[in-house]
Amino acid sequence: LDILKRAYKAMDRQLQAAWQARAPELPYRNPYEALILASVIEKETGQSTDRALIGGVFVNRLRIGMMLQTDPTVIYGLGEKFDGNLRKKDLLKDTPHNTYTRSGLPPTPIAMPGQASLQAALNPAKTQALYFVARGDGSSEFSRTLAEHERAVTKYQRRGGR
User: Fold this and answer.
1) How many CB atoms are located within 10 Å of the residue 45 CB?
2) Residue 38: DSSP 8-state
3) CB-based burial of residue 33 (10 Å sphere; 0-12 exposed, 13-18 middle, 19+ buried)?
4) Which is nearest to 41 in space by CA: 25, 17, 58?
5) What's the whole-model pTM score?
6) Contact 114, 42 (CB under 8 A)
């Protein structure tokens, strides 16, 4: 229990420091909302170079009222029912954390974010991108329009191309 308390206190110190140094005009009302988005960024990529851009995409979506539509929130909401293969029916299954069926941020964090994800949520890259898709090599392809995104999905997911 002591180790959990120490981990929580360390995370809270990092969150408060990052909150104080945050970029202006972010769409979060408080540090907890930033923590929630940081947790989504954490699960969305293992590629440190993509984190700030993914943060920028999510901030752009939140600013215009667009759904986040991020797979890790669906997986988290499915819990033990997730079998490792995300299907269209899973995206449509409404849970409190499903950002395909619910607007805004999920109600709680979905993971313990690292410092890089906190920074990406609180100092996101300035980008016009609204979409991204995994390339299959750990990195992401970013798009400004739905048409660009659909081409990228076809290239990297449906055809498995690189």
Assistant:
1) 21
2) H
3) middle
4) 58
5) 0.92
6) yes
What are the structure tokens assigned to 47, written together? 């590629």
Closest C-alpha among 44, 161, 60 to residue 114: 44
Q: With left for phi above 0 and alpha for psi between -120 and 50, is residue 25 left, alpha or beta?
A: left
Query: Residue 159 pLDDT more than 80?
Result: no
Residue 48 neighbours by CB distance under 10 Å: 11
Q: CA 25 to CA 38: how far, in whole Å?
A: 17
Find all residues with CB under 8 Å of 36, minimum gap 6, and list them.
Answer: 105, 106, 107, 108, 109, 110
Residue with tokens 């920028």: 56
DSSP state of 142: E
CA distance 151 to 147: 6
Cα torsion 29, 34, 41, 148: sign: positive
Please write the tens of the pLDDT for every residue from 50-79. Answer: 999 999 999 999 999 999 999 999 999 999
Q: Which two tokens stand for residue 12?
A: 């809270």
